[in-house]
Amino acid sequence: MMHGKLALFGCTTLGLEVARRLAGLGQSFIMVDLDSARVQRARDEGFRVEQADFTDDDALRGLGLGEDIEGIFCLLPEDSENVFLVITARAMDTGLRIVAICREPEAASKLLAAGADKVVDPYAISGARAYDLIARPEVVELLEETVFGHQDLNIAEITIPRGSWVHGVRLSELRKRMTQNVLLLGVVDAEHGSDLIFSTRNIDHNLDVGDTLVIIGARDQVKSVRELVRAREVPR
User: Fold this and answer.
1) 90: which residues sit within 8 A by CB, 6+ positions away?
2) Does 136 fall in a domain?
3) Whether pLDDT at 133 is above 70
4) What mean pLDDT do residues 23-27 have?
5) Within 10 A of 190 (CB to CB), how many other CB atoms are there?
């Protein structure tokens, strides 16, 4: 999770579901939509919502883009709207984290070209999930009850910051220092793309600033690992 504020554009059904999950994690965020009916529905659920025009640069700056907004979700109903929002937001803040949804498969490449960091195709995900419910019901049930269920388990990404003692050490050394009850899935090497190097491959990866650890664990345990990684001195 991010320490700064997030903005969710689109008080759609998907937008509300994302908002519920962020609220459950204690993440600071604001919802944005121009449609009055969707805005009211989000407000009825208790979310902070701004009725604003995403095509108005001044309105976006007023929301905090280019200042305290660290990331946005582009969840508007039309692909063309999301593409326009991505282009505008990226121009305002080159370091902004942008996640966008695509309604049509061909829109994915446009969103990425516009500047989105990640593009989600809900239909592809739903199709894969429907298949798994039939082909691998036990696996789906396990994930729903643990990682994606109501129990206190979370998938977290922890990026190694500049100045961390973890920079330059081996993954095996970090494991020795980790006393938390978490599952380390693997590492995303910042210098070699976005592929996850699974810990089960037994690769003793050399960790560097910008690399990302992917872990599963209870919220307090994840927080403890995050503090461990951010420390400047080697823990004793």
Assistant:
1) 96, 98, 114, 115
2) no
3) no
4) 84
5) 14
10: region left, alpha or beta (phi > 0 left; psi from -120 to 50 alpha): left
- Report yes or no: 68 and 52 within 8 Å, Cβ to Cβ: no
For residue 156, is pLDDT > 80?
yes
1 falls in which pLDDT band (50, 70, 90)? very low
pTM: 0.62
Contact indicator for 213, 155 with CB cutoff of 8 Å? no
- Whole-number Å distance between alpha carbons of 151 and 218: 8
Q: Which domain holds residue 48?
A: 5-120
Is the per-residue pLDDT at 38 higher than 70? Answer: yes
Q: Please, which residues bridge with residue 7 across strands?
A: 30, 72
DSSP H/E element including 224:
helix 219-230
The pair of structure tokens assigned to 151 is 């129990």
Tell me the residue length of the chain. 236
Give the residue among 84, 87, 117, 82 at the shortest CA–CA distance from 102.
82
Instruction: Assess whether 27 and 88 both reside in one domain.
Output: yes
Residues 117, 120, 123: CA angle, nearest 5 degrees: 165
Report the percentage of the chain scoring pLDDT > 70.
85
**For residue 78, what is the domain's CATH number?**
3.40.50.720
3-state helix, strand, coil in the chain (%, to 5): 40, 20, 35
